[in-house]
Amino acid sequence: MHTHKSRVPKTLACELLIASCVDDGGIYKYELYSDGELVQGKKFPMPSPMFMQIEGDKLWATLRAPFADSKNSAVAAYDKESGKRITEYISTLGEVACHLAVDGEDAYCANYVTGNIFATPDIVRTHEGHGPNPERQERAHVHCAFFSPDKKYVLCCDLGIDKIFVYDRRLNKISETSVPAGEGPRHLCFSKDGRYVYCLTEMGASICTYAYDDGKLSFISQTDVKPQGFNGQGKGSAIVLSADGKRLYAVERGSETVALFDVDGEKLTLVCHCNVHGREPRDFMLVADESFAICCNQFSDDIAVFKVGENGVLSYINNFPLPTPICVIKNT
User: Fold this and answer.
1) Secondary structure (3-state) at 197
2) Residue 223 sits in which domain range?
3) Are 127 and 160 in contact (CB under 8 A)?
4) Is the pLDDT confidence value at 101 over 70?
5) Is residue 147 included in any domain, yes or no?
6) In a domain, 205, yes or no
7) Is residue 125 part of a domain?
8) What is the pTM of this model?
9) What is the rounded CA–CA span in Å between residue 19 and residue 87?
10) What is the pLDDT of residues 217-253, one digit of tens each?
11) Which residues contact 69 (CB under 8 A, 6 or more apart)?
């Protein structure tokens, strides 16, 4: 008598969008299944998309350099179902628009190379200065744009001059604060209650924690995200807070790890480091009710999928190929 193991049918866990930042790349739809399999679907062709966000029925994306006569980047909106472009290419009035925040029809773009932040339709603020690192901080380099929880303000990190700026919605400066010299602030996120900001630095590969109050930031502490014993150059990339606000993930490209911290307000307690199973992890996201995690490994041309345990620890499942994956979001 032969017996057969009953197979539990896999179910769809969630849908994702992942950007492939190459000339003939675009944004790909993916289906993630309950066994961790990632299945590639429709491609929305775009020239070197760098960042994206869904707002209503629109998919907004920044494009590295789509103009024939200019090095400027562009931002454009697409139909999120068909991928058809529904706006013109809007110049970001700067080069290498690597990050984006959208609310309604207002789009804010961080232009890395030219060190300015852009707001549609044509507002731009250019930062001046430099930092102590002559290779990375020879001038301003704006790296992100994030809304405050009430969406009253736009915060941006300037890696080149070691500052975090807070602007109003028309890019009038409200405040600025510094990170320790040479750290290079890259990305940030707010605590669940909005009282704290956790800023991940790139060259320092640390988390700088700030108290936040109506557009003002006050430095509290600095926490290393590199694994103990790692002596190479740190290179922070992405920082993600869990929905309940109790766990913080910080991606470090130098050691190719994700650092997991328990969070209690301003206090961060290291839990462990997890290998990203790829090279140059650029973006990271918790998906499918935070039961899975996705890591975009830019230089190894693949996407790593992890199961998230009850304690938040990542368990590696598999890699899936994609040229220069640079950004992942939920397809909501």
Assistant:
1) strand
2) 12-237
3) yes
4) yes
5) yes
6) yes
7) yes
8) 0.96
9) 19
10) 999 999 999 999 999 999 999 999 999 999 999 999 9
11) none
Two tokens at 224?
């290393």
Taken in order 18, 123, 160, 202, the sign of the CA dihedral is negative
CATH number of the domain within which 55 lies: 2.130.10.10
Domain count, the chain: 1
Q: What angle do CA 18, 297, 94 make, to 5 degrees?
A: 65
Q: What is the pLDDT of residues 272-290, one digit of tens each?
A: 999 999 999 999 999 999 9
Residue 166 lies in a domain: yes
314: left (phi over 0), alpha (psi -120 to 50) or beta: beta
DSSP per position, 204-228: S-EEEEEEEETTEEEEEEEEE-SPT
Burial class (CB in 10 A: 0-12, 13-18, 19+), 317: middle
Cβ neighbours of residue 86 closer than 8 Å, sequence gap 6 or more: 58, 77, 78, 79
Structure confidence by residue, pLDDT tens digits, 289-312: 999 999 999 999 999 999 999 999
**Tokens, residue 124:** 């731009």
pLDDT at 1: 42
How long is the chain?
Answer: 332
